[in-house]
Amino acid sequence: MVQSCIFDLYGTLVDIHTDEGRPEVWEKLALFFRYYGADYTAEGLREAYHRQVRELTEQLREDGAERVLSDAPEYESSPEIQMEEVFVRLYREWGVEADRELAVHTGQFFRSLSTDYLRLYDGVETMLSHLRQAGKKIYLLSNAQSIFTAHEIRALHLDRWFDGMFLSSDHGCKKPDLRFYEKLLNTYGIDRDTAVMIGNDGTCDILGARRAGLRAIYLHTNLSPDETVTEADVLIEGADMKRLEQVLLEDGRMAEKKS
């Protein structure tokens, strides 16, 4: 029987569209930086932002590789930076010593500027409520930045449903890195034989779950990559929460291969 349901977030429970490429996003963000003495142009800020993301990612990758023994075949170099550090560094480029609070608020302003919409897929709360009533444990395992996602989860009133939440920026690695899965399983004592991963990404969610010894349900939603997924125990077309609930509340064998 399925006892623990581990959900991805974006593209699985939450429908979102962001566009960081719009010029007006960077124009308004550059103005915000100038409020605090960091005299960026829109294009200069865009270039500095992407450079800092690359440098921090590479630094974390190198640090992680140094800590891993050479005989650890399951290791994947899937580092996850903390975006607030990017914004701290961007202020420092202009000699501004920004504290974490300002860096977080800057990041959240950036996120709001670039977000076109944020909403739950139809039927998500009903599905989660029925899982809870059936005694299932519900967890979140998401490749996401805490300074954005923790607040978006609260804004959508999703936090009340989870018995535990793991966001990749809090742990320095992300799916499909086996370490991220193992951290969640070990922290909450999740029995992998009675757990299932539900997600919309064939590599991060399905192959990652398989490597962690978990069963997997693939939702092919509007945010899924262009891919062919054959490794899932169940394939569901679209964000069909009624069908997902039915599968999770059945006898748990999930013997079917298509839905």
TrEMBL record:
InterPro entries: HAD-like_hydrolase, HAD-like_sf, HAD-SF_hydro_IA, HAD_sf. Transmembrane segments: none annotated. GO terms for biological process: small molecule metabolic process. Pfam families: Hydrolase. GO terms for molecular function: metal ion binding; phosphatase activity. NCBIfam families: HAD-SF-IA-v1, HAD-SF-IA-v3. This is HAD family hydrolase. It comes from Candidatus Fusicatenibacter merdavium. The lineage of its organism: Bacteria, Bacillati, Bacillota, Clostridia, Lachnospirales.
